[in-house]
Design goal:
By secondary structure, the protein is mostly beta strands. It has 1 helix and 6 strands, in the order βββββαβ. It has one domain.
Amino acid sequence: MPFIEQEAKSEYKKIDGKRTHVITPEVEITLTNTETGVEYMSDAEADADVNDPNTATQREHLRRDVHIKVASLGLGAGSGDL
């Protein structure tokens, strides 16, 4: 089951004295044990499995898939953001 590592946001910031639109994408993570197929709901859960002496899970067994969702933007003369 994927979890959100970073929420999307859109804001204006002053950078070098200019008003700049800063867009932060949503980052969705799927963390999977390649040996067992177990999907973790957080990095902490995966770390706990690796650190648990009662499991055979090793750091090398973890696969981290990252899905970055970028918002579509209207750019150009018709957008009003020139």
